[in-house]
Amino acid sequence: MTFLKPTRRQLLGAGVLGTVTVLGVPTSLTSCASSASSGSSGETFRNPKVKASEGGRLTGVVTAKRSQIDIGIGHDYSTYTFDGVIPGATWEVHPGDTIGVTLRNAMPVLSEDDQARSDGHGHGQMDTGSTGDFVNMTRPHDWTHTNLHTHGLHVSPEDTEVGAGDNPFVTIVPGAEQRYEIPIPSDHTGGLFWYHPHRHGAVAYQVQGGMAGALIVRGEIDRVPEIAAATEQVMVFQALEMMDDFEIPAPEPNATLQEAFFPRDRIVWTLNGQNTPVITMRRGEVQRWRMLNAAEGKLMSLRLTGHSMHHIGYDGLALPAPRMMRDTFIEPGARVEALVKAQFPGRYELILSPATSQLPYLPGWNQALGADQPVGSDGTVWQEVVPRVVAIVDVLPDKVDMELPRTLPAYNPPLRPIVKHRDVEYTVHRRDDHQFEAFGINHRPFNPDDPPYVMRVDTAEEWTIHNAADEGFVHVFHIHVNPFLVTHVNGERLQTPVWRDTWALGPNLGDSFTFVMNLDDFTGKTVEHCHILTHEDLGMMEALEILP
Hints:
Blueprint: H1 14-17, H2 35-38, E1 50-52, E2 57-69, E3 77-82, E4 90-93, E5 98-105, H3 112-120, E6 125-127, E7 133-135, E8 149-151, E9 177-179, E10 182-183, E11 191-196, H4 203-208, E12 213-217, H5 225-228, E13 231-242, E14 266-271, E15 278-283, E16 286-293, E17 299-304, E18 309-314, E19 317-325, E20 328-330, E21 335-341, E22 346-355, E23 388-399, E24 418-430, E25 436-441, E26 453-456, E27 459-467, E28 475-479, E29 484-489, E30 492-500, E31 502-505, E32 512-519, E33 524-530, H6 533-537, E34 541-547
Parallel strand pairs: 1-4, 2-5, 4-12, 13-16, 15-23, 24-27, 26-34
Antiparallel strand pairs: 2-3, 5-9, 5-10, 6-7, 8-11, 11-12, 13-14, 16-21, 17-20, 17-22, 18-19, 18-21, 22-23, 24-25, 27-32, 28-31, 28-33, 29-30, 29-32, 33-34
């Protein structure tokens, strides 16, 4: 595979967040692909390996370690993984089960040079001459420390004598291990969730290298006859970041305006760790596609040529009825579940249109290649927002007649009385010389020891999230423990409010949104943050506490 060098125009945004990237991926925008134009590996699509609960418990040891991974680009990728695979195994559980895994950190201790750079950013107070003294949790650090977060699950953040809960403040140093004990409520909704590291200062580095896996809770939606009859495809989309030597690059905590905190030379989009696999369907067949955007911070929109997708749930939360959509927009961290019914025999392309926090194009934009965006003979491009083919769908002529459901067991719990409204601003902080200092929320970077929000269990709150950054960044809101009902965007009420746990805001997406959130069942300390994880590591996270 040939890789091309970027043009000057493609260096947009390189300084603060290191968004200059290389897309070592094939692209083709025709309605029907050939293996030559799409760059398809010809591999059959593979679901990730499944690790299912037994006797009400999901157990075993999960190891975070350095691995050499074949991702179909002609050279092994040197990165960090869960158990030596990208993505990690799909965890499958049921309501009432307990996740009782042990996470072992077999990643190396940082070299003396890396540790010096990690420590060099400082861990105390800093006076930068901008808006005041901030706790300096605003740089990547200790990036081989790790932990575990079960994204989207309605579970407790509190630890017990048996093990850790879904606690983002846990730190597992290299050579250590941590047992987790995360009970899933007996009335938990069925849907698609996921797991990934959440150790502040290290999360972006580890997720951009591939440390992630799908997490399925079986439930009522699986018993809908038309869904039960459909072949299930778990689809983990990842934007793997690397340098020219095909190795994940270490962060640069002391980057200046002209450098990148998270340097990289190229990004390779994969689907279940594969390069453009082939999905086979029969005419009239319905498949259930369970799609997860496990990229560190890339937004994405999917379109299957010649077909629509029938959305049945967002973020693991079922809709009342399928929604037919031509384009499927998925924020980083979010999930979309859809039914796809194969049409006429032929070969079709699943086209992924990416966007970044600094290049926030509308979902579904098919941006044409510009004159200074070179394309190699194999279709390789160096442009972060150019659409590319991530899978081929072969529809065979032998016909079946499968139906789509008309109604679904919607996730729609009654709302508790609202006891408080909060306005939350996602902000950027700069020094007097305008050099980037940190991201923050409500004008303060992350301070784990000072939760600004104290809430009460068994109540509800209404929040409005504002994109208050003047640079036009996209941000992606995510909160742990409880999902939320989005009711307004830019102050206008949605015709159909929607339950989510992850939501993007910014140019083309709305600069504010309002939601109502039930604070059900669980107390403890947790977080809300931007799920563009470089933003999170650079300060855009807040601790919060739910009291009895």
